[in-house]
Design goal:
Blueprint lengths: L1 H25 L7 H33 L11 H24 L1 H11 L25 H5 L4 H17 L10 H6 L3 H7 L17 H6 L24 H18 L3 H9 L13 H4 L24
Helix pairs in contact: 1-6, 3-4, 3-6, 4-10, 10-11
């Protein structure tokens, strides 16, 4: 099924990329640069190869763990796939939170955020090493009875959805859509380096997890999104882009001798430093006292009245 999904989705993605590129050039939007697009293509190729190499190991581990489960679905009816969709999307939310909260994972995920552009090719600027640890976050799904191959397929299907939200050319959609689904507006915020926007809107398909757990921030027309990192790499060299944060980790742990500091430089929040010379995203956001957002959020509390 995944091979068929790839065959069907790839032409669609290529069509969107070409269309956005032509529009950008025709209207002088400067959404693309040659160097940035080159990095995006290198990263997606590298990620694909790593995923291909590690796919067998992932399936073996998930299948073995699944055999230890005492829960089993009697049939793969509509409710099985519906439950799997919600379970997979939430598992991805947790994975994405870990990518932003633990420097060891951020060292891989930072590649995806390193572009200072925001276009459809940024969607394929993949976290090169994520295939080596992503499966860990899907172990709970096989433990409750979902099959490994089905999880892999659902992840791939949701990834296809995640492609189209990487664009500046689509504004805000209908309030109902904006309330439940990840949209280009939501994902622009996620890629913002503005202090207000850091570590927000982590969902892949559903934005409800962000609303429930307080990581949702709405795109503010008064605060234009600045894409990229709080400290950009300023390089189109693939090795620097992919390994920049890993080199930073090595440099930092060499500066200290105590176990706690070395541990924190590897597994602490990105931006943590033993001498407070840098700031984490939470520290950068402290000047922005954003109100907590619940499932029935305040800024769109009347959304249900507008459904019709």
């Amino acid at each position: 099924m995944e091979t068929l999904l790839l065959a069907l989705s790839t032409p669609f993605m290529v069509f969107l990329i070409i269309g956005e590129l032509v529009y950008s050039n025709f209207h002088n939007r400067k959404l693309y640069t040659t160097g940035d697009t080159f990095i995006n293509l290198v990263c997606t190729t590298w990620n694909f190869l790593n995923d291909l190499i590690f796919r067998g190991i992932t399936l073996v581990i998930l299948t073995w763990v699944g055999k230890q489960s005492f829960l089993h679905f009697e049939a793969k009816d509509w409710y099985y796939w519906t439950l799997l969709f919600f379970a997979q999307d939430f598992a991805y939310y947790v994975l994405h939170m870990a990518d932003h909260s633990i420097r060891f994972f951020w060292a891989s995920h930072i590649t995806h955020h390193s572009s200072e552009k925001f276009n459809f090719t940024v969607a394929i600027r993949s976290s090169v090493f994520q295939p080596f640890y992503r499966f860990v976050f899907y172990i709970p799904l096989v433990l409750v009875g979902f099959e490994a191959l089905d999880i892999v397929f659902m992840y791939a299907l949701c990834q296809v959805y995640g492609f189209w939200v990487h664009t500046e050319l689509v504004g805000k959609l209908h309030p109902v859509i904006e309330y439940f689904l990840v949209t280009p507006s939501h994902h622009r915020v996620h890629h913002g380096s503005n202090a207000k926007y850091l570590d927000t809107n982590m969902g892949m398909v559903l934005i409800i997890w962000d609303r429930i757990f307080g990581t949702f921030v709405e795109e503010d027309k008064n605060t234009p999104v600045v894409f990229g990192l709080t400290s950009n790499m300023n390089s189109y060299h693939p090795m620097k882009v992919v390994f920049n944060e890993w080199r930073g980790i090595v440099t930092d742990i060499r500066k200290v001798s105590d176990f706690k500091s070395r541990f924190m430089y590897i597994f602490g929040r990105p931006g943590w430093s033993h001498d407070n010379s840098r700031k984490t995203s939470k520290e950068l956001k402290k000047d922005f006292k954003l109100p907590p957002v619940s499932y029935f959020g305040s800024e769109e509390k009347d959304v249900f009245t507008r459904i019709l």
